[in-house]
């Protein structure tokens, strides 16, 4: 680590330091062109190379074949909440949704504007502290897709794998906070989307991976900007894209590739999360809020058994260079977001501080 402090923010979140330093140079001069990345024409050769590199790295990391399109869009994952059903949910179709938290609820609300929505499972009965599975998941008879949020930043839960959707039914996944943190089988998916600001880069760009046969499913009378086919046909350049954000995403993907790919990334993330969860499981003051079989490796949510100590813990942690530990306003408590770029040393520093805080606040 440099003299920068540890950033546990859930997003915008920590980026690899090597990427930040390279981006500093690119802001001034992109690859010796004499012009910064934010100043280049989005249709020029220099930015075309940036876009091509980002897409190639994405495809290589996740094994994405030519039967899928890779798009760099705007509007955040929240825009995908309505774009997915607007493009895929037509006529008398039904889409199934698994409700595991705030972002799932928002996606369900938007989908209901465009067609029939069946909630196949929900963990709201226990404040979204677990991932529903087994007999609790009841799919509809013929859904056009099954939507789920792979990692839940507010509740600190995560799907261990893909939900067992009916055979041949494509999965649609909001993977904003755990994309490229582990391997996944793209063949199971119709659409994967993710806002960049948690695990991929800065805010302002949204990665969308969509199966090509689904691209043409949308009604032709949708506004151009709201059709996936528009962005596929124009290579993510129907209008001016967020050039700098795409550049950083490309560099982060390259960083993951150099790290050893998704298998190595998954091992690293598992080890980092284990450091914190192991302490929480033995602590006399702190406890994790997610059910052990549903714990997120990206967002570790915890509370103090003496809730009056939580504000003091967060304040003292910040003074120690452990920033961004306050839990989401809707649930309170604490949250340590340890995305791909978060260093293991930061997890060790947090555990050391938690032990000291517990010792002095028995």
Report on the architecture of this protein:
The chain is α/β, with parallel strands linked by helices and 362 residues long. The protein has ten helices and 14 strands. Strand 3 (94-99), helix 4 (102-111) and strand 4 (116-122) form a beta-alpha-beta unit. It folds into two domains: 17-259, 3-Layer(aba) Sandwich (Aspartate Aminotransferase, domain 2); 260-360, Aspartate Aminotransferase, domain 1. It is globular. The mean pLDDT is 96. It has helices at residues 17-28, 45-62, 76-88, 102-111, 212-215, 228-233, 243-259, 261-282, 310-319, 344-360, and strands at residues 6-7, 68-73, 94-99, 116-122, 146-149, 151-152, 157-158, 171-174, 189-195, 206-211, 286-288, 299-304, 322-323, 334-337.
Describe the secondary-structure layout.
Layout lengths: L5 E2 L9 H12 L16 H18 L5 E6 L2 H13 L5 E6 L2 H10 L4 E7 L23 E4 L1 E2 L4 E2 L12 E4 L14 E7 L10 E6 H4 L12 H6 L9 H17 L1 H22 L3 E3 L10 E6 L5 H10 L2 E2 L10 E4 L6 H17 L2
Parallel strand pairs: 1-13, 3-4, 3-5, 5-8, 8-9
Antiparallel strand pairs: 2-10, 6-7, 9-10, 11-12, 12-14
Helix pairs in contact: 1-7, 2-7, 3-4, 7-8, 8-10
Descriptive keywords:
globular, Aspartate Aminotransferase, domain 1, seven-stranded mixed sheet, alpha/beta, Aspartate Aminotransferase, domain 2, 2 domains, 362 residues
Spans of at least 5 consecutive residues whose pLDDT stays below 50 are none
Mean pLDDT: 96
Alpha carbon gap, first and last residue:
32 Å
Output the CATH topology of the largest domain.
Aspartate Aminotransferase, domain 2
Q: Please state the overall shape, judged from the principal axes of the Cα atoms.
A: globular
The CATH architecture of the largest domain: 3-Layer(aba) Sandwich
Please state the structural category.
Answer: alpha/beta
Give the topology string: H per helix, E per strand. EHHEHEHEEEEEEEHHHHEEHEEH
Query: Beta-sheet strand percentage?
Result: 15-25%
CATH evolutionary superfamily of the largest domain: Type I PLP-dependent aspartate aminotransferase-like (Major domain)
